[in-house]
Design brief:
Elements (H helix, E strand, L loop, with lengths): L2 E8 L8 E9 L5 E8 L8 H7 L3 H5 L4 H8 L7 E4 L2 H14 L9 E3 H8 L8 H8 L9 H20 L3 H11 L5 H15 L9 E3 L2 E3 L24 H15 L7 H15 L3 E5 L6 H16 L3 E5 L2 H18 L6 E3 L9 H10 L5 H15 L16 H8 L18 H11 L2 E5 H9 L10 E4 L5 H9 L1 E4 H11 L7 H10 L6 H32 L13 E6 L8 H32 L6 H26 L5 E8 L8 E6 L3 H9 L4 E6 L9 H7 L2 H5 L3 E5 L6 H4 E6 L12 H17 L4 E4 L3 H14 L6 E4 L7 H10 L3 E5 L16 E4 L10 H12 L4 H18 L10 E5 L3 H4 L3 H6 L5 E5 L1 H13 L5
Parallel strand pairs: 1-4, 4-5, 8-17, 8-18, 9-11, 9-12, 10-11, 12-17, 19-24, 19-25, 20-22, 20-23, 21-22, 23-24
Antiparallel strand pairs: 1-2, 2-3, 6-7, 13-16, 14-15, 15-16
Helix pairs in contact: 5-7, 5-15, 6-7, 8-9, 8-15, 11-12, 18-19, 20-22, 20-24, 21-22, 21-24, 22-23, 23-24, 29-30, 29-36, 32-33
Amino acid sequence: MKFAVLDFETTGNQSADEIIQVGLAIIEEDGTISKVYGSYVNPGIEIPPFITGLTGITNEDVAAAPALEEMMMELVPLLDDVVLVGHNVAFDFNFLQNALDRCGYLPFSGRILDTLDLLKICFPSLTSYQLGMVTGHFGLQHDRPHQADSDALATAYVLLKCLDELNSLPLITLQRLAELFADEDSDLGWYFDGLCQEKEREPAQDLNSHTFYRQLALKVEDWTEMAPPRDDVDDNPLKGVEFKEYLAEIEKRLRDIMPHYEEREPQTIMFDQVMNALDQDKHLLIEAGTGTGKSLGYLIPSIYQSVKQDQKVMVSTHTINLQEQLRERDIPLLTQVVPFPFKAAVFKGRQHYLCLRKFEHKINRRDFINPKEDTITAAQMIVWLAQTESGDDEELSLGGRAGDFWETVSSDSDSCQGRACPWFRKCYYHRAKHEAGIADVVITNHSKLFTDVKAGHQLLPSYERLVIDEAHHLEDVAGKHLGLHLKYFTVVHTLTRLYKDARSGQLPALRQLLQSSAYEQAGEWTAVIDRMSEDLVDVKEHWDKLSELLFNLLPERSDAAPGDGGQYTLRLQPGKKPKEWETLAALENQIFVTVGEIVRKGEKMLAEYKEEQDDYGSDSLITDIGGLLKDLSSERENLRFFMTLNDETVVYWMEASGHFRSKSLQLYAVPVDVSKQLKELFFDKKKSVILTSATLSVDKSFQYMIDNLGLQEDQDSGRLVTVQLPSPFRYRDQALLVIPRDFPSVKGSVGDALFVETLARSLADAAIATHGRMLVLFTSYRMLRQVYEPLKEALAQSDIAVLGQGVDSGSRTKLIRRFTDSSASVLLGTSSFWEGVDIPGEALTCLAIVRLPFQPPNHPLVEAKSELLQRQKKNPFMKLSVPQAVIRFKQGFGRLVRTAHDRGIVIVYDTRVIESYYGKYFLYSLPGPKMEHMQTDQMVPRISEWLHQDGVS
């Protein structure tokens, strides 16, 4: 089997466009690359500038090149009896067929494979399938991206990498892949089929490296085989060992592994403070700035405490990112340096784990909604099962609609068969749960912490000591979980998974089973299913109508540009219901009654069926329908709670986007003040809670956090300790903060022409002085968009790229990667860039803060909290708006200096920091950078001077 890997560069991507370069690499049967052919092609027209920008191919390059006919005379003989391969092959294939037709050749009729599909299937965990990223990841040679011969050669290497990977897969995995694509009339099915035949001729191998079960190859054994970290019979490894001795031994081992390891004073203080709090049953608020090494600061004492006392310590993070960082970076390091075996387990929300029963059921029944995409996703997962030890969706790269696929196969409590499930001992969720059960330290996230509380502590193993990292998010997460959040699509997904149409959905699947069964009640049950199906269609219609009417209540946004799909928000208040509310409540009542009927009929039928049934085949289906009915029932209760609008301690509001209108509707009902619940659920119940983050204090005081988290009583009784750690950095030498005091000011979220023009000019000048490497933080998308084009124009001559969040495509992670990889660029970001973005070293030299990050005062939750403070005779602006904004401001500032060697500039364009009475809280809360204010035109010379004074260019 010979492969020909083809790549064209063209003047555009429409079929009428012309080829300007061709690259072809031939791979022989033995896997060697025997020939690389490359040629420019004269397109007979001018090459568009943006194509030259992308490929580097100019009109001069192609002027003397052969015409299409001449090139094809050389190319066509090379395509004889080959399998054609390309990266996103449909594009190149289309141009090839066109060229063959124009030059009088027969169309290409051989087999075609796409390395994009093969990569997704063979390497389901790659973060990007873009050719440049893939070659970088595998360390393959790719000298000139977007040049056809270089791209063809790089694609050939990628293909060989995929074929190696396929050859290493167990036979049963290949057979499942062949079977999956068999009906798909695709060359992938033909290829997998051939691979299977080859592999079947080889002697059986690989019987020990995988577990084979129900026609799937898994990487893991039964979780019941998993042993605890230490034997019960052994003495406690910390018997008679003081914390100081344990710490000294760890630091000695750290120095052996990392010759540059040095004790950091703030980290040493943190070890002691965390240890004392755990040991003396106290609560601790500890602010640990960047560079403290705070994860080790709490993990090392937590391991000591849990092993010595034989009591679990729970660690909770806000983001999955930090959870992964602890798993990938900190725990492996500690495993090397802690002088005895211990176990730290990561335990996430249930929906992150694959349910093997649902997955098996789905692929056996080919229950695919988007056949082409779903088949690739299923293939990815079949291969992933032979690689994953956790079954956690964070390991999978699921693009496009694969997220919807995941929702149908992820684990959930309502459809879990527990011990009755044939997959029980292999189950990823129960594995994670068991692992958490035998671990010393369990790492979870704030969301799961609250889900566990709501489920009566059934989910997490029991714990008395808790460390909360990224604690400045705790209040926010508590509100969302102790309140209610219902989306339009949540309800629709449940309805359509039960019944979409006569052919798709779990009810039609059951109906089909009943028709071919011999149960005497089959006819009766079929009639029940038909009635339920009709009712579900009615509910969907009512829900669509209700969502539409609720959306219509949302006001037109005053600050939205024409066609701007910004968020619409409306707060609903118990005493002031909109005049149409009765009509809406009547619709909700119809939904409430009908859903009640559906659930009652459904549960009765399932109970009768369970008594009669004897085949396992339908077991899985019955469980899933039962689970969906439970979901529907709780959605019905939530909708009723929202529509009743009668709890004065709750703030109700709706949000939607202008683009997707009622389809994007979200309903919220959140307690205005969660401090009392946090106190009852955590601070009164647990022996010790440690809250840490880089931003907990405002102007050196923790009062804001104490008030909002319900810690006042513990503060008064001396049970709460507060510590602000000194910074490990020399901020006075490492950071200069500049404020242009004559800068124009802004009202609202939109800048006037003068402001936008002055800002774009100033940012461009500063960017040139700092050679790009600049992050600009905005508080509104609208203003970011206003500045994007003028800034791009101002920097057009200087080779500095401008990247804008929401303007340039790509997720936050991709934008940051592009920013870090490019030598000179300015990245414009809004809310999500204010924190959690880590760009150490040279990539970031200048941080510009356009506006102080006040939350919009008209956001329903902010509004309700302000009203509550007013009733308590407190000033909402000083008690709520300023502290919230200061904490965001400190987070933003924290992006600049990430290591002891970083140096940089912060520009604050908002003159309120020096003009207003509250400005000092912002500046005094920072960790001591050098601060100067000056006229705007003096700023760039001062920046250049400061950057050069220490030899930094």
